[in-house]
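TL;DR need structure tokens for one chain.
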Amino acid sequence: MWRATEMTAVDERGMTKYFEELEPPEGIKVELLRGEIVMMATPDLVHNRIVVDVQDQIPRKRWERLQTTDVDIIDEASEPIPDLVVLERGVAPDSGHLVPSQLVTLVVEVVSKTSVDRDYGIKRSIYAAGKIPAYLIIDPIVAHSVLLTDPIGEGDQADYRGQWITKFGDPVLLDLLGIELDTSEFGILTGVRRHRLP
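>> reply
TL;DR here they are.
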């Protein structure tokens, strides 16, 4: 993992340009999070099954459900790649690899053993700064989901006002999508140290 610290605006633009030209090895996911390039290995099967389960529950006729799509966060040196991006059908650009954050209704991140701090920390702030209405963290380490809504603030001070924690097995009410998400078949990651977040 490379780190870029104490960057000026020019440095951040340079890092964004470098990031856009970066060609990672196959199977490696690469994100730009506030000027820091983060590389991750292919996720666990538990992770992938949860993402597919969530995607399958979101009505395709009304919503576009995109995996491995970069989100362009306004006024940020960030291009996160959520596990799932949900937006109204027909609003996304016809081509390209970036979806502007103002078009996104919901982002979903499934926590892995190496992403706990990022998913609960910097990504919470980045998605709120991008004014994404809802951020759903699904955590197979501690078997709960955290729905964050009502983004406020700017930059690294941005956050979500609303927070609802739901145990696996109980439905998650996604009002913005008009659905109740069934979590009863979400798998659990075993052999991973538990944490106390959020």
